Q: What sequence folds into this?
């Protein structure tokens, strides 16, 4: 794939193109973004050719029940952790049969932050054909919907990068 970025298309359009080229399907397990990533993806023409399904697992119980995240991991590390995000990504792949899964968990605010995990922190898990990569980004306390929007854009850009550089 050409590593040049077409600046005339949105990050979500770019991702759809990459997924189509690779003949991959994607599913999302969203928490703090509340379905925004899926909604943004389906705004792209032909997204149906690459999009499996999405689940909004906002509560810890939903993450455990729907995605198979271990309760012990949540109890020990907290729901906002790379381990949970990675387990969410793997779990949504297992649930849907998609080659690509993304897990997103964080603190959008305005409350819920702590000194260790401030408002604006979001953990991401990306599962591509069984290989899981995790990232944590602090988008700062820029307002609930801005954190959600920034996290959504981050998913499209990072997943595109990971897919283009997949071994």
A:
């Amino acid at each position: 794939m050409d590593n040049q970025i077409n600046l005339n298309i949105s990050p979500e359009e770019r991702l759809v193109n990459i997924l189509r080229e690779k003949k991959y399907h994607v599913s999302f397990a969203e928490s703090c973004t509340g379905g925004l990533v899926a909604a943004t993806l389906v705004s792209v023409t032909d997204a149906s050719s690459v999009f499996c399904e999405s689940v909004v697992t906002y509560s810890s119980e939903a993450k455990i029940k729907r995605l198979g995240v271990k309760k012990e991991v949540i109890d020990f590390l907290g729901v906002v952790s790379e381990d949970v995000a990675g387990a969410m990504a793997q779990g949504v792949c297992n649930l849907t049969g998609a080659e690509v899964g993304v897990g997103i968990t964080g603190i959008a605010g305005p409350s819920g932050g702590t000194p260790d995990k401030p408002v604006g922190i979001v953990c991401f898990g990306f599962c591509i054909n069984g290989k899981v990569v995790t990232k944590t980004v602090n988008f700062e306390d820029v307002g609930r919907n801005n954190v959600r929007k920034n996290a959504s854009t981050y998913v499209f850009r990072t997943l595109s990068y990971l897919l283009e550089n997949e071994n």
